[in-house]
Design goal:
- There is one protein chain.
- By secondary structure, the protein is α+β, with helices and mostly antiparallel strands.
- The two termini are 23 Å apart.
- β6 and β7 form a beta hairpin.
- The chain is built from 4 helices and 7 strands.
- α1 packs across α2.
- Keywords: Acyltransferase, Transferase.
- InterPro entries: Acyl_CoA_acyltransferase, GNAT_dom.
Length: 172
């Protein structure tokens, strides 16, 4: 692990993070195909998402901050996999790191904290959809025991082109 982990704190997200989390996510909306959202959000529009991730339970939000400045460096979350009741023991996980904070192990730290928090929640599987190509995200998920299960071909259309999504699963 990089030595600068001591400079990063991970904690549950709260309403005080809303603007920073919205700004971070909007970077990925505007600049990448990592998310298939195409229109940036206002903090008010993003608030229901934040509130759907309480401090406990299977749907969590973990935020990494710079220990000195308090600046949000990234976040990881677990959300419902699908809305139907039989899916309740499955979650979809995701991680976003500030573009200038990559390659510091922040994604690893966030996922480790998230999966530690989920360990006692009675969950069966975690799923991750990774827009392709994204070798860094694939490596992160494989480090956490995710296995490739299949690809949805040309499932998203953004920036004038089609994107594949590779699906990975992890036993919890």
């Amino acid at each position: 692990m990089p030595s600068d982990h001591a400079e990063v704190q991970v904690r549950p997200g709260d309403e005080g993070d809303l603007v920073a989390l919205t700004d971070l996510y909007n970077h990925y909306v505007r600049e990448t195909a990592v998310t298939f959202d195409t229109t940036p959000f206002t903090p008010a529009e993003r608030r229901p998402w934040l509130l759907s991730h309480p401090v406990d339970g299977p749907h969590r939000l973990m935020v990494a901050t710079d220990a000195g400045s308090g600046r949000v460096l990234g976040y990881a979350s677990s959300s419902p996999f699908r809305a139907k009741p039989a899916y309740a023991t499955s979650v979809e996980t995701t991680v976003y790191v500030a573009p200038d904070a990559g390659r510091r192990g922040i994604g690893t730290l966030l996922y480790r904290t998230l999966f530690d928090a989920l360990a006692a929640e009675g969950l069966h599987r975690a799923y991750a959809g990774i827009a392709q190509p994204n070798a860094a995200s694939t490596r992160l998920h494989e480090r956490f025991g995710f296995r490739y299960v299949g690809t949805y071909r040309e499932v998203g259309h953004k920036f004038g082109r089609w994107w594949d999504v590779a699906w990975h699963e992890k036993e919890l």
